[in-house]
Fold these 3 entries.
Entry 1:
Amino acid sequence: MEGLLNVYQISLLTTLAVAVIMALSLNLITGFCGQISLGHAAFQGIGAYMAEILTKQAGFDFASATLIAVLFSAGIGFLVGLASLRVREDFLAITTMGVAFLFVGFVNQQPRLGAEEGIANIPDPGLGATGYMVMALVLALLVALFSVYVRRTWLGAAFGSIADDEDTARIVGIDVARFKLAAFVMGTGLAGLAGSIYAHQVKIIQATDFGFIPSITVLSIVVFGGIGSIVGVIFAAVLLTMLPLWFQFIGDYKLLFYGGLLFLMMRFAPQGLAGLIRSGLDAMRRDKRNDARVGDAA
Amino acid sequence: MSAILNIRDITVRFGGVVAVDNVNFDVPDGQLLGLIGPNGAGKTTVMRAITGIVSPEKGEIRLNGAPLHHLPTHQRVRAGLGLSQQLVRPFRSMSLVENVRFTAGYAKTRGPLGALVALDRSAEARRALELLERVGIAAQADARPDEVPLGVLKRLEVARALALDPTVLLLDEPLAGLNSEEAATLADTIRALNGEGFTILLIEHNLGEVMRICDRLVVLDNGRLIGEGAPRDVMAEPTVRAAYLGTEASDAAA
């Protein structure tokens, strides 16, 4: 495969796999269950730092470090969710925004975590660049398949009912707080997975890699792709990760670009790309039906 | 008939206003009980106290002898309450049959872990179609809630409540907003459900239909229980007449 892809392309595909896992993990929370998180990247950061501590500072192998990082992110997600999901519908957005800033503030004060300079020389997992890329892509695929599976289960249906109307979900016997917490724990755990893969790919991490702007970026990806749509969100993750690489100015004005995109989508196309395509198809089908009817009349 | 739902000394206060004042009544097993009263009498507040949407300041609510009043809404529903809401609240992302199918899967949505390993929907789908047929809207099974008139959504609320296999069916103004023909048909359906053995607590403004289908009435006015008994006897009581005529008079003035 080395012959097929150059070093840059291998690193790009690994980056895209991480972006897809991040977007799909937030999609579980925001897309499936309707809960807004403004600090999702912080959970990626928690996974990244936890995995780094384990591989670089404690000598764990990559696989066990990643597994523990996933559980740890999910655990922090559980605590944050427990504190905010039981209170009020929109409280999670506020709390997670707090988490986004708290994470950066906390890490920047910890010499053990490299403080503001960050951490370099994170150990190589020893799979080679191509092997690592394949692993990342396989994990991204597994996360996508997991999303498809969840969507088909009664859990997915319960998430959907909560995203649709929390009060009605309660009336039909759904323990809304518990299901929201489940979505949040699953999503934050998978963000931790993305964090560990990211840390061992770039091998140098800083708290700001997981700050407010990356959180808004991943939220705008989910909204752009079409809240809840697995294919749409994967497509958006790839497109919106590539765009700043193609167009330097997008990289320079990230917050403006992603913030603006978020605003425009929420204002004009709240169903995202997937929604636009769906309504486009519906319209085409309607046209066809009308054409047929005109044909019948003639 | 033994009482299946007991409402004991329920008092609900909103700020300084007493919305429900020491209300007591029982819903006997198998009865179709009408809870009526003029606007602002506290009927919906009593219903909300039963479902746990408002917390009474004092009092007890028991279902089959077990206290409900400390439980959150979803646990009361799982204990055996089936609620059809006054303002229709379908899941708008689901078709009518999906609304009922999802609700009929209540045993599979008890908790997230069990729901994660539950895939099969065929039994629930069959049950959902049966229930839509039962309330007379099977023809619109695949329609979206936005595509059907209010009368259909009112019936959907009832079908969804039935999907929970409730011990007591709570119907909050199921006839409101329907024309007289639709109201009469839905009232017939409610009567028939009661005939099949469902215990029903019905809140309703449509006195004509209430008088026609209910076994017994409980009348509230200004948060107090002012009458209770067989429909004709209750409506003949001077206090009840005064409460209704008083409202009508003030309505006319307004």
Entry 2:
Amino acid sequence: MSKIPFTGVYFQHYTNGHTDSINLKQIEEYAKNIPGVALIGNSNDFPPVDKKSFVLKIKNDRVKRIVLAGYSPGMSQPFFAGVLSELGLNPSDLIICSFKEYGAIQSDETDFAKALLFCAIMGVPIETTITSNKPLVNEDTLIIGGGIAGIQASLEIANSNHKVCLLERTATIGGHMAMFDKTFPTLDCAACILTPKMVDVGLHPNIDLLTYSELKEVSGEPGNYKVKILKKARRVDMKTCIGCGICSEKCPSKAPSEFDAGTTLRKSIYIPFPQAVPNKYLIDADSCIYVKNGKCGVCAKVCPANSVRLDEQDETIEINVGNIVLATGFQTFDAGKVEQFGYGKFPNVVSSLEFERLVNAAGPTGGAITQRSQDKKGNWIFTAETAEPESIAIIHCVGSRDVNQHKYCSKVCCMYSLKLAHLVTDKLPEAEVYEYYIDIRAYGKGYEEFYERIKDEGIHLIRGRTAMVEQKNGKLHLRTEDMINSRLIEQDVDMVILAVGLEPRQDASDISKILGIKTDEDGWFDEVNYISNPTNTFSGGITLAGVCQGPKDIPDTVAQASAAASQVIQNIINGKVKVLDKSKSLEEIEAAAIQLSTIMEEQS
Amino acid sequence: MSYRLNPKFKKELEKLGASSQWNDCFHCGNCTAICPLTEGQVLFPRNGIRALQMGLKDKLVASSDPWMCYYCGECSETCPRDANPGELMMALRRYLTTVYDWTGLAKKFYTSKSWEFGFILFWAALVVALFWFFLPLRPDAAQMVNESGGVMINSLVAGINPDQFVMIIHYGDWIMAGIVASLLITNILNMFYKTILSDKKIKVPFYTYFTEFWQIIFNFVTQSKFSKCDDRSYWVGHLLLMTGYTIMFNLIVVALPRFQTEAVVEWYNWQRLLGYYATFGVLFFLTIVVIGRFKKSNTKLRFSHFSDWIFIVMLGLTTVTGILVHIFRITGLVEATYYMYVVHLAVLVPMIMVEVPFSKWSHLAYRPFAIYFSRLKKAAVAKQDSVVLAPAI
């Protein structure tokens, strides 16, 4: 113990606006009693006005090592590293103790924050004191979410010869990617990349596909989970349905198509889209006449395979797994929340997802970009017959980078907006496309080149956030400040595309409660460490893949899904799950840390 | 025109009530585009934030744009960064008031409560002292009641006849108005120098000084730009206050001998009706503003600088004491009428002396003149453009 060098602890008094945050004062009091602590300071106002006396104080207190503690104290690192080298000490003796990094955020985690600080002062990595290994009882893996992330993770694990159960809420796997027309920056057809993978999943002997099912309950511990799943009644027998589609032809009732983002209508007995996996029909209970009042049942009468089970009920099943991969993805921001843009009020103000379907060859107009028009009943629909828009405006950052909605950047909108602009000029060479952006964020491989390419295609890029969209004389009137030329632009266009951001699924917090993992302030699932351990959670047996952890594009999602799969495979091969057990008491962690530091001293 | 950077400039503005929120601005231009009053050459508030972030003090001093803003609050409500551009415009108006004021008192009043209260108390004490020493209540004042039971207000002072008393107050009013007017006029000349003359590039065509002159009167009377703001009811309320006060001011400064008479005229008489309209207009809008400033639900009233409260309290006290004088007169309470009359003047005089030339109320002159100056600038730029552009084609 006596050999622990004198340590100076500097606190950053900032908690990122959490209302019920850890008690920093209590931690500071605690730090005073830790052996070896010679100096306690405040790192809020750095760099200090009087650096000389600051350095002198550290020298006089014979401090040999500095610990920066706080919610996220890395900001002052360069300054303190400079101070250490100025004193002739080793800059690597500067230890960052970030409470946020280890998820010590709320007030009930104050003790864990103390433990983090104790380990930092002792020079012992916290992981070594709280890691414990749980035996892997079950080798099967549950993957929640059948989008590109879930598909990729399933295939990786299944290909390594381990059983996977892929859980999907809707009737088909594919997720948002199946709805996209093209991918950036290569402009590959999204379906051409995705559908082979979907078919692979459908046919894979190691993958057990559970579509139209929801997670209900999870019990047990890492390595041995019991999972209750609600299998919603599909009302069509999956084994015997041959997918002929006669039922759908005859079905009299209709509902908006989820796959076409509500731009078209589908029947109540339907298949989400022609390439759906599994390629079987199902009945939407909300719109089915038979479910509502017991009359109809046409589908059952016409089915040649006799597969319709109109009175089928939901059932709950239970499975056992050792690992869980969470890949629940996102939902797009509801553009109606930003009233200025008139979404939902003006028919030709569309969300980017709707436009993505419109421009798709399998979409409502067969890929023709047209304006919305009213049908005989007065509903606003897309048809191939109506006039093409002569001008289209794309408004960036709808719901993103806005303190009134989501303050984060959704990361994908700039690039997909550029892609949409390209698709418009491709299909309508005469049309003018205006992009109103705040900043263009073209990070990533080939993205900047893509941006340059689209710029050369004659698209008008205007730096300025459109403040409002109004309808005047049948045109949409936009008011924007053109920042670069310092002028007000009042532009009339035929169609407005709102580049909506990504947000956590509405029920993400329910999922987090079921699985016992945390969400961050924006609602995304929290990882152990965004930089060095981005797929793991503190629950050990639960890993994250894709957008459910934070906005990312398809390449990043696929990469992370593979990383999550490797984590699972590692657990399976090792036969154990590494768990960071935050529930250990402060005393236990202290004892472990002291023990470890003595061993380390003896060795050195 | 080149500008000097002044990084310390922001500190100056923070003293005038600009919270550091403006520093969050990431220049998306939402505020400028959503503002119903921006057009062509007049782009705000983002330009102002930019100039402030860069420390372009000279540019801001030469700009009359902050006066074009009537603070509807739309920009602050929709700002994606919560940078509060609307309140910054308010602070910039306070700043410009201090810039135009050559005496330096405006700056003292906006930044120091003791200066402001001291100045108010000085004028209040002066009024009270003048009455105490030169215009005391006459011993037999209790008899000064006319046939209808009303107080003969001009006969309450010892040693002088009623006509003399009215004329003393009348001349006092004129002296006060003269001081205020000369301060305002010199400040406006200063404003003219800073916004038009200091920019050597701008050559205002001489005739436009006359052709655009009607703008000043038109905008003073109607505040038509204000009516373009989204919340029109606020403009109506403000118009009630403005017309109410203007009428009252004219009654007491221009027409005091006819307004303040011994006989209490019938209620349907024009002076009384005008007086009632003015009182209602002022009180109505003041109540709305006070409720708004307390509730803080309305963006434009959410942030209150102490000078805003002083203005409201002074104007409210003036109105209330005026009403009380009127009530005491009608009901024949002689002594109460006299003392309330003194109190009324002891509030009114400091309010006019502080607010009109040096503080919030100076906007009554700066706003119409800012519109006038910006029209002059526009005309100048339009003419110069044609000169420059013609050969280029």
Entry 3:
Amino acid sequence: MEFIGLTPLEWEALRLSLQVSAWSVVGSLPVGIAVAWLLVRCRFPGKGLLNVLVHLPLVLPPVVTGYLLLVLLGRKGVIGKVLSERFGVTLAFTWKGAVIAAAVMAFPLLVRAVRLSLEAVDHGLEDAAHTLGAGRTRVFFTITLPLMTPGIITGAILAFARSLGEFGATITFVSNIRGATQTLPLALYTLTQVPDGEAGALRLCIISVLLAMAALIVSEWMSNRFAAHMRG
Amino acid sequence: MLEVQVRRKQGDFEIDVAFSPPESGVTALFGPSGAGKTTIVNMIAGLVRPDAGSIRLNGRCLFDAGRGIHLAPELRRIGYIFQDGRLFPHLSVRANLTYGMRLLPRPKRYATFDTVVEILGITALLNRRPAKLSGGEKQRVAIGRALLSSPTMLLMDEPLASLDHQRKEEVMPFISLLCSEFSIPILYVSHSREEIRRLAEYLVVLEQGRVVDSGSLKELTDRLTLLAP
């Protein structure tokens, strides 16, 4: 990446940030849609608890969330132990762990956006599809889900941006290891802690701003495309 | 032939009706707003579950409270045309029309795409999206969509209520045409005397969730002043 003048450290941080954020969105989107569905359309005992759990990362200090993840998913954690012994998957101090941290922190934002769009879907259209012979699964995938597109776009972009900016939970859960877990915010933070790091920090700052703006522009473009599609 | 005998309580309001319209032609469910017409049609379609009673169509049991049968709407093969059209806004007119059709195996289809499109005069609209249609065009597409799912009967819930006079004239002839062309029974909900006089052959009169009278249009016109202009 010499041609755009990025140093190896910058390039590593950028690549890792994109990788972590992309996987965070891809992994949490289906779960987020399912949870939004449960919260909007279903009645079951413990629904209030699920709602609280989903929103918890929004109100907890990120460091606390990161610590909880470490306790649960760390090498000696309740779930982490099973994962590493049974499946050979290690999350702590790896980029996969950074994905989990980012996804958990972004999850409330994702669910809120998806949920709003699901609430806005006209039940009458789903009823109409049923009377035309479509079963519940088909109605979901051909009617409900497409009509939720605006909320899914918003939710995905919010989650992506939140993942890009994730700091507290990430540094607590997977630490700050160059090339493995050092995403843009962590690299920026590191540079502010060393002498003569200001110039490097500023460069990372500019990269972060450009990345965030690109994400917003893509989201706007996709929303406009959808609106144009509906207008015909 | 449709046999309805249902009861359902909604708050203080109770629907308790039994009727069995003739096997063909347009039967009108007539009554003032709040008489329970839409709820009854929704029960026949399977969108609302009655508290008690039974619904049978051509000898097939769609609902039977005693036996715990409540067939899902997608298994009933009853076409439903809603007051507000309910076209799928993200699909083109063509995709709307074929939505139900494609779910039915070819041998079971009696309405073909070209015929329906031609009868309803919507050939020019096929590639448009519902947002670009007028009210009358939307309702014609909605009728086509229901018809193309080759239903054994059609429910129409005030399909013309949201249209102005001119648009009504645009849609009404097609409804009479459907019956003769495809010979499927239509249950037509309305509170408009004019529509009923023009379209219906048989009449079920509702008030406060009860059937107060029923019979052929001719009989009832003689008996009641209700249909007097």
